[in-house]
Amino acid sequence: MRQIDALKSPRFSQVSTFARLPLCGEERPKAVFIGIPFDDATTYRPGARFGPMGVRDGSRLLRPYNPFQGVYPFDELNACDAGDVDTVPGHIEDTMKKVEEGLLNILVFSTPFIVGGDHSITLPVLRAVHKVHGRVNLIHMDSHYDFWDSHWGKKYDHGTWLRRALEEGLLEEVVQIGIRGSVFSHEDVEDSKRLGITSFSIREVKKNWGEVMDRVKALRGPTYVSFDIDVVDPAFAPGTGTPEVGGLTSFEALELVRGLPVELVGFDVVEVSPPYDVSELTTMLASNLIYEAMSLKARLERRGS
To answer: Is the pTM of this model over 0.90?
Structure first.
């Protein structure tokens, strides 16, 4: 399966798929792009339900060869676009069931590269991952902790998914990268240690990049990566629901993904809200993050073969 050739068909033409890849058929590719358009679990600005659509449009400039990682990710992984999970607007737990079922069908033969949707979608994805791979490590890039116990007395939203995943025994080691911004209480900071999470603030990332990457390199076994686009500074990624100033640059975000030496079993980019975007800055970055993650998968598979 190959991309549409941009030298034969201009990039602004044809039906929009991720990186102009073919839709998945009966083949069993090593990498599958899939969208989860759901944002009913947001606690501030909506719009992430349009994330998959926006990222597909923002991916039209992606080319076959990645010179930074030395791979042809789409060809080497036989990648395709699986469309979107059919979510249930207004119903979080029903949507979670559909997400888990949809991802389970992919995980049995492939690695999913996912665009949300708000961050609540990562919980049912991890449930599906657990059924196939058992407990996995989690690299969580975000400006927020996302391990609050509840909001307004409710257990499921985009800020509680990580605590639920820990309670359900889905995870081994958890490393958070880029945490910043104000919180509700000093206990939120202390909860990181109580929950056994390694959390690096944005200051630590900026000042001690090597230490952060060394901690990531120490992870052993299957690893899932969840990238909340709001870990990037809103100057570079304004299209998100809960922006926090003082984050990563676009270059730092790409370098972070390129440098992950992990056994990757899944990757998501969440909280992309195109209605708040400017000149496709956020959707283009999100599409390139997926591209770099696919390239990483291809590079590590080549090394292991």
So the answer is: yes
